[in-house]
Design goal:
By secondary structure, the chain is mainly β. 8% of the residues lie in helices and 47% in strands. A hairpin with a 4-residue loop joins strand 9 and strand 10.
Length: 162
């Protein structure tokens, strides 16, 4: 199911004295956050006056957050993006949790977790009943709107297999 908001990262500290803060991004790369003009914090919309990458984090300045004291109050909060501002082709791990997984026309369960590994992600189906690498060879199609994913299973993906 497509979410209305996507959690993009956590505010970890302030930066400077003019209200800028550092975000530890949860997106594929920190550059992705810089593509957006607005975000949400605690259910309130903000305009992003600036966003730049610093190593593996982002330095963000929001309109209306103008002092280090204002920025300090945001520490530990989750910065969200509006799903409508993101390409429909992009699918987030959070949108896959709960989706029905089908192999050979039969539902084999639901994705309960998405594990991130350096090579690729792995979809955990029904608490580990199946572990499916998120690669084109095994993920045949994904339709978040229809809550379904078609996969190709091979020997060894199932927990009860030898």
């Amino acid at each position: 199911m497509k979410l209305q908001y996507i959690e993009a990262g956590e505010i970890v500290t302030t930066h400077g004295i003019r209200g800028e803060f550092k975000v530890l991004p949860w997106l594929d790369c920190p550059e992705m956050l810089c593509e957006f003009e607005r975000c949400r914090l605690d259910g309130k919309e903000y305009i992003m006056d600036s966003c730049r990458v610093q190593k593996t984090c982002n330095l963000v300045k929001l309109r209306g957050i103008d002092t280090v004291e204002d920025a300090q109050k945001l520490r530990g909060k989750i910065l969200e993006l509006y799903r409508e501002d993101i390409d429909d082709d992009v699918i987030f791990a959070a949108e896959l949790v709960g989706i029905d997984v089908y192999a050979n026309g039969q539902c084999i369960g639901k994705i309960t977790e998405v594990l991130d590994y350096p090579g690729n992600s792995v979809y955990v189906v029904d608490e580990g009943k199946y572990m499916i690498p998120a690669v084109k060879e095994f993920i045949l199609s994904t339709d978040v709107e229809k809550n379904g994913m078609q996969v190709k299973l091979i020997e060894g993906m199932g927990r009860d297999e030898n």
